[in-house]
Amino acid sequence: MRTTTRGTSRVLALALGAATSLTVLSGTASAADIDAPYARAAAKVAGNATLLGGKNVQSVTRGSGVGVYCIKVPSRAVSDLSTAAIVATLNNFRGEITAIGAPHSYCGNDANTITIVTSDSSGKGADRPFTVAVL
Predict the structure, then answer these.
(1) What is the mean pLDDT of the chain?
(2) Which residues contact 8 (CB under 8 A, 6 or more apart)?
(3) Half-sphere exposure of residue 97: CA atoms within 13 angstroms, side-chain side
(4) Containing domain of residue 110, as a range?
(5) CB neighbours of 66 closer than 8 A, spacing ≥ 6?
(6) What tens digit of pLDDT does each residue of 61-117 get?
(7) Phi/psi at 41 (nearest 5 deg)?
(8) Is residue 23 part of a domain?
């Protein structure tokens, strides 16, 4: 078998890539990391508005009122939230969740912000952990 410089470079690149992948896989996830390969944007958020994991999320803040969260998404990731498919679910709690992709006064009428409203099972506003994705 004849080895060329080009072939050696490929082998070296593959070995380096594998080593880098192992380092990434063995590390801890940061708030910027979430496994959502088919989502344009996604966030896993704690009840206190802490971003636990995200993809294409600029920030998570509290909106006006109990159980209101504002998820800022860059326009390069989602050009028009009002026409996007947005799905949201509560994490390990019973209750209700609403995801609003259009500008809303709870979050300053920002066109690049998803307004999330969570409540308990009786409909009263409550801080709840949730996951949201823009498909």
Answers:
(1) 83
(2) none
(3) 22
(4) 41-134
(5) 125, 126, 127
(6) 999 999 999 999 999 999 999 999 999 999 999 999 999 999 999 999 999 999 999
(7) -150, 150
(8) no
What is the Cα–Cα distance from 42 to 34, expressed in whole angstroms? 8
Which amino acid is it at 44?
K
Rounded to whole angstroms, the Cα distance separating 93 from 81 reads 26
The answer to whether 53 and 31 are in contact (CB under 8 A) is yes
Using CA atoms, how far apart are residues 94 and 92, in angstroms rounded to an integer?
Answer: 7
Map tokens 């958020």 to a residue: 45
Q: Please give the tally of structural domains in the chain.
A: 1
**78-89: b (≥16 Cβ within 10 Å) or e:** beebeebebebe
Residue 22 lies in a domain: no
Q: Is residue 15 part of a domain?
A: no
